[in-house]
């Protein structure tokens, strides 16, 4: 028997019977289609923001943040590293794991990871953030709450991705992913941050600011910190923004969600790789050229 969907109490209490494009789909057999619909039709902006924030959370774990700092990639080529990650994750989602380009993208991801000494525990933790952070983000800021079937489909989609990446001991349910993520952060976050973690975080926040018009860029750093929970702020060694600024920032995100609820249904999919913030390849790209490549023992050069 397939495992049942289990939802955190704070999500369960707020799930509503809101009509969605995924209504009636079976998450056990159509999980890829359900998650693709959520990511490209129902919540493209929210899921893109949430996945960016999910990766950002992982940088606060020293074994992750220090490794990224050692490569120099986020200091020297932050935009390209962001774009490569978006594209390599977007292709399997939109075209399928078994498509030619889907297989090429997964192969490229696995090739990069093999160049580094990355533990299965770290890989599993990163996978858990992909499952949990978007669900929590949409619960807090989305135009509607995810249904139990949508949460189950999200879980199954990333279980499938994890298998294609040869990650071991993948959790079965959403609750198990959430427990893994929360406990891993509690165990591995270092109060005050480490130098490499701080540099990686700073470079990423600097990149985030470039996604917005110049007049508002000075607000992006405090706005980003306003969205962070206190343990995450402490793990980067960041100062919390003024309580009033944090309250206004979170209110603005929730207000956006309420306004989106009144917009007409999206007629065409919004692919993450087509968003304006992906800038590195105006003339196109080749999957085999994305990401980092080792040279003389240093996996940071193209």
Characteristics:
302 residues; mainly alpha; two-stranded antiparallel ribbon; 14 helices; 2 strands; 62% helix; globular; disordered N terminus; disordered C terminus
Quick overview of this protein structure:
This protein is mainly α. It contains 14 helices and 2 strands. Strands 1-2 form a two-stranded antiparallel sheet.
What does this protein structure show overall?
It is a single chain. The protein has a domain at 26-204. It has helices spanning 9-12, 27-42, 44-59, 62-71, 73-76, 78-95, 100-114, 120-141, 148-164, 174-188, 195-209, 217-227, 230-236, 243-260, and strands at residues 293-295, 298-301. It contains 14 helices and two strands. A two-stranded antiparallel sheet has the order 1-2. α4 (62-71) packs across α11 (195-209). It has 302 residues and is mostly helical.
What is the averaged pLDDT score?
90
Quaternary structure: single chain
* Helical content (DSSP H or I, runs of 4+): 55-70%
Strand numbers in spatial order across the main sheet = 1-2
| Distance, first to last CA | 47 Å
Query: Helix/strand/pairing class, anyone?
Result: mainly alpha
Which sequence of SSEs, written as H and E, runs from N to C? HHHHHHHHHHHHHHEE
Radius of gyration from the alpha-carbon trace, in angstroms: 19 Å
Please give the largest β-sheet.
2 strands, antiparallel
Report the principal-axis shape: globular
- Spans with pLDDT under 50 lasting ≥5 residues? 1-17, 295-302
Number of helices: 14
Percent of residues in beta strands: under 5%
Beta strand count: 2
